[in-house]
Amino acid sequence: MKSRNGFVSNSSSSNYIIAFKQNKTPCPHCGRYDVDIEDIIMKAASGWSDTRIDDRSIDEMKDYIRECWDPEDWEGSDRQEKIKLERDEKLKLIDDIIENKPDWKILSCSVSHCDESIPELIGQMKDNSSLIIISESEG
Predict the structure, then answer these.
(1) What is the distance between the alpha carbons of residues 119 and 112, in angstroms, rounded to a whole number?
(2) Which residue intervals of 23-130 are DSSP H helices?
(3) 20 near 107, Cβ under 8 Å?
């Protein structure tokens, strides 16, 4: 698996901080397991693409959010308060997931634009409430 200590910053990828339900129990009716998004990203990372899981702690992910949604960067702009609210919502969301969803995992990753199926899967999982997109940005 490719792992990186920093957030990827090239235009050929999208960066995500996501939280997802880790369900290791098969369906009692059909025996199937939920999709393991982390495993899918890890498999894509073992190939030739720029897809990778970033080796970041929760505190480092929070620092990234504070850096990217810094209201001081918008000083004097009518967007300054909106950026501050967005930042605070993202940080609160991380804390809420940690506190109230013990079977969920928070992950930072970069997905190559060549890996079209992963963003599609992230969207589907978000739609069925088994994944939360905390942060999404272009690399």
Answers:
(1) 9
(2) 37-45, 58-68, 80-100, 117-127
(3) yes
> What is the identity of the amino acid at 80?
Q
* Residue owning tokens 């009518």: 78
Name the residue type at position 59. Answer: D
Asked whether the beta carbons of 128 and 120 are under 8 A apart, the reply is no
Task: For the chain, list residues with pLDDT below 70.
Answer: 1-11, 48, 139
Query: Residue 15 is inside which H or E element, if any?
Result: strand 13-21
> What pLDDT score does 8 carry?
45
Both tokens of 71, joined, read 């209201």
Give residue-wise pLDDT tens across range 10-47. Answer: 458 899 999 998 877 787 888 887 788 999 999 888 87
> What integer pLDDT is reported at residue 139 of this predicted model?
67
Q: Is the Cβ–Cβ distance between 84 and 78 less than 8 Å?
A: no
Q: Give per-residue burial for 12-35: e unless 16+ CB within 10 Å, then b.
A: ebbbbbbbbbeeeeeeeeeeeebb
Coil vs helix vs strand at 7: coil
Length of the chain equals 139
DSSP assignment, residue 50?
A: S
